[in-house]
Amino acid sequence: MKKKYNPWAWVPTLYFAEGIPYVAVMTISLVMYKRLGLSNTDITLYTSWLYLPWVIKPFWSPFIDVVRSKRWWILAMQVLVGAALGGVAFTIPTATWLQGSLCFFWLMAFSSATHDIAADGFYMLGLNSHEQALFVGIRSTFYRIATVVGQGLLVMVAGNLEVLTRNVRYSWSLTFYFMAGLFIALWLYHSYVLPRPREDAEHERLSVRMLMGEMATTIVTFFQKPQVVAGICFMLFYRMPEGLLAKVSALFLIDAAHKGGMGLSPAEYGLVQGTVGVVGLTLGGILGGIVASRGGLKKWLWPMVCAITLPDIVYVYLSYALPSNLVIVSSCIFVEQFGYGFGFSAYMLYLIYYSQGEHKTSHYALCTALMALSMMIPGFFAGALQELVGYRLFFIIVMASCSLTFLVSTFLKIDSDFGKKA
C-alpha cells in the first residue's frame, strides 16, 4: 500500500456518499414529482423502474473486477452521480422536465448501484480484518445519516425554498444543484484521501469467459438449495405490504386534504418521515439485531412477522382521522417505521441463512436482487391501485396483503441455533 490514511478519514464519507444517491432516487424523487404535479400512478410506475439497477446488480458486479481497480470505479461513479444530480437540476425548469429528469435519475441509479459494489469491495481491501470489524457499525451509521440528510434535511430545504422563492421548480432545481456540488466535493476529497491498496491494483483478474462460467454455476446452485421454493416465495412476498406502502405512503403524507391526503408541506414531511421515521427505523433495526443474537431467528421470526405487518394499520387510522397535530402524525410514522425496522431484521437474517454454504457471497447477492425485485413489482401498480380506490381502501388492501407475509413465513424451516451469539 503506497499511502495509508486513517480509516476515519474515508470510511464515514464513503458510506455517506453511498447513501445520498440512493435516497435521491428512491425518496426525494417521489416528493419532487408530487410537488411538480405528476399523478400517483405515473410517479410509482416511473420510479419503480429505478429499482432495476439494484435488481440486476449481481449480474454485472463480477465485471467490476475485470475492468480497472475498485478505487477507480468509486471515483468514476462519484463523478457520474454528481453529473446526474446536476442534470436533474438543469432539466427541472425546462419544458422536457419529466423525460430529462428521469433520464438523469436512471444514470444516477446505475452509477449508485455500481458505486455500492465498488465501495463494499474496497472496504475489504482497504482495511485489515480488525478494522473491518471495528468500522462495520460506523459505515452503517453514516449511511443512516445520509438517509436523514437526504430524506429529511434536503426535502425541508426544498420546502423552505418554495416559500422563499414562490417557485416550486426553481426551488427543487436549486436543491439538486446543491446536491451536485456536495457530490463533486466528495469526489475531490476521496480522490485525495482514499488509500491505494496493493491488492486493489494487483489482484488476479479473471477472463470474461471464466466469469460467465462462474455466474452460471452460481445461478444453478442457487436454485438447487433445499427449500428453494419456500425461500424464494419468502424473499418475494415477505415485504409485500411494504412494497405497496413504500411509495404511496410518502405521496399520502404530502397529498392535499381534498384528495384524501395529509397535506404536509415538504418541510413537515422532511421532519415526520425523513427524520422521526428514520430514527424509528434505525432503533427498530438495532433492537431486532440484539434480540435475534440472543434468541436466534427461529425464536423471533413470528414476533418480527407481526412487527413488520400490524403497525401498518396506522395508515388506516391516518386516512380516516386526518389529524392535523404533527405530534400525532409523527408518533404514527415512528411506530410503523420502528415495527418495519424490527421485522426487517428477520428478512435480512434469512437472506444470510439461505446463502450459507458454497458460493455464499454470490448467493447472497442473488438474494439481494430478489429483495429489490420484491419492492419493484408492487410499486408498478401501487399508485394506479390507490387512484382507483382512494387512500382509505388502499390502506385496507395493504393490511389484507399482510396475510401473504404470514403465509410465506409458515413454510420456512430454520435451524433453531441460527443467529444466536456463540
Helix content: over 70%
Structural class by sheet pairing and helices: mainly alpha
Residue fraction in strands: under 5%
Total strands:
0
Q: Overall mean pLDDT score?
A: 88
How far do the termini sit from each other? 35 Å
Low-confidence runs of at least 5 consecutive residues: none
> What about the largest sheet?
none
What is the H-and-E element order? Answer: HHHHHHHHHHHHHHHHH
**Number of discrete helical segments:** 17
User: How would you sum up the global shape?
Assistant: globular
* C-alpha Rg (nearest Å): 21 Å
Descriptive report:
With 422 residues, the protein is mainly α. It has helices at residues 11-35, 40-48, 52-55, 57-60, 70-91, 97-126, 129-165, 168-193, 198-202, 208-222, 228-237, 240-254, 266-295, 297-309, 313-321, 326-354, 360-410. Helix 1 (11-35) runs antiparallel to helix 8 (168-193), helix 12 (240-254) packs across helix 17 (360-410) and helix 13 (266-295) crosses helix 16. The longest helix has 51 residues, at 360-410. The protein is globular.
